[in-house]
Design brief:
alpha+beta; 1 helix
Length: 56
Amino acid sequence: MVKWFGYKLHLVVDSTYELPVAWEVTEASVSDVTRAMPMLDHLHHATGCCCPVPSF
């Protein structure tokens, strides 16, 4: 088993303005894949955005 030390910054970035619109700091061992959809769902509900949330 591989152990990772430190932290990881997960970002959701606006593609037009290149500014972060959501972020989360986790332990370095947390996968990006496991955090992507919860962050997009939260952003979708928090902003009332009418843009569709992708389903993977």
